[in-house]
Amino acid sequence: MTQDITVLDAPKELLRDGSNRRKVFIKTYGCQMNVYDSGRMSDALDRDGYDQTEDLGEADLVLINTCHIREKAAEKVYSQLGRLRDMKKAREAEGREFMIGVAGCVAQAEGEEILRRAPAVDVVIGPQTYHRLPEALKRAKSGERVIDTEYAIEDKFEHLPATGKATIRARGVTSFLTVQEGCDKFCTFCVVPYTRGAEVSRPLAQIVDEAQKLVDGGVREITLLGQNVNAWHGVDGAGREMTLGDLLYRLAEIPGLARLRYTTSHPRDMDDRLIAAHRDLRALMPYLHLPVQSGSDRILKAMNRRHTADDYVRLIGKIRDARPDIAISGDFIVGFPGETDADFEDTMKIVETVRYAQAYSFKYSTRPGTPGADLKDQVPEDVKAERLERLQALLIRQQHEFAEECVGREVDVLLEKPGRYDGQLIGRSPWLQSVIVDAKALQIGDIVKVRITGTGPNSLIAEVAQN
Ligand code: 5AD
Ligand code: SF4
Fold first, then answer.
1. How far apart are CA 35 and CA 41, in angstroms?
2. Considering the entire predicted model, what is its pTM?
3. pLDDT of residue 9
């Protein structure tokens, strides 16, 4: 099925620089889904007469794509809006247009509250309605303050991808591609089921079409995105049920698509087909982000994760049997309500057992409206801070050990961007490490075999391998 997307007329009046194009500055907070969404908003605005700018000073429109996952992330939005209000005043005094839009999960969760707390905001738009952004801006220009946070997810997926007249712009040699949104898992600490809504998978044909367009535009690596990406499901042309593993086998057939990744997964949805894909597909990179959150069964239960620490460890074993060189990454929360010293030690233990190549760890942050917010025994801030420090020290040590193990090895690197010095390019290893390569005569987009010669604080150093 192809969908035609309504292309709104670009603004006809000329701006002060003589063109009829305006400029949008997009600031993205939070996860990769937001990065992907900002790209799609930029595509929608491009068709509406806006070019993207990196310079706030020349923007006619500022969009903040927000994150609501932890309290700090949400509060940042309001301090940013305070600064933008002052800019808007100054611009308006010069008779220049300056519009402010708030998008993303804070927009979804707080809606009206944003207009109340930040009167300079013109448009509040939720993650499911980005395709209606041009229309919302039009309404805002005629003086209305617009809130559009309806759940219309099928709509968004029908409108934003590059089918019919719309175009998807490849912005480099790697790209995100959202295949699934929302979550039905309801972990008791998490706002996602409320801000992004119920789980929805994009249809196979739409995904294959978008992947093909990205590859046509020069993309060599695609990371499939979803809040719960391995819950993706669909049907093939013959009406057979498919899961994420099947989707990966299908995408691996696209000529020129050299690398595939996916994130973020839930342990409960790591099915045998997906594990087989890790065994069979050369294009599927040996890297898996599989959050466990805690190593304590008591806390896992209170978090409603619906698996034990042992289930997780055995699952990792099965995945490593299928793909021995796979690197595991994870997310952890310390200080969930009721977490004792013994529970925290269980988290340290599971980290020792699994050995992570990379990880993210956070202090529990109470999110209003989630079941965790009503739990007794909230852990004091100083205890959370102390636990986080210990956990992060261990995770960083493991990350460094993993990097050290790479020294002397030959690995394939996809070159993504210029390095700081002449003749250097920066790429990614199969395990998602940043690799600085002395790469004269090579080009961005090349996949090159290099020998890792050393490690830097956040990257590996390499030279092209001699055959
Ligand atoms: N407090 C702290 N961390 C959280 N995360 C999600 N919700 C919270 C919260 N309320 C973390 C989880 C998740 C990651 C994206 O953010 O570890 O996997
Ligand atoms: Fe949030 Fe992930 Fe749990 Fe869903 S599975 S509720 S997105 S932490």
1. 10
2. 0.90
3. 36
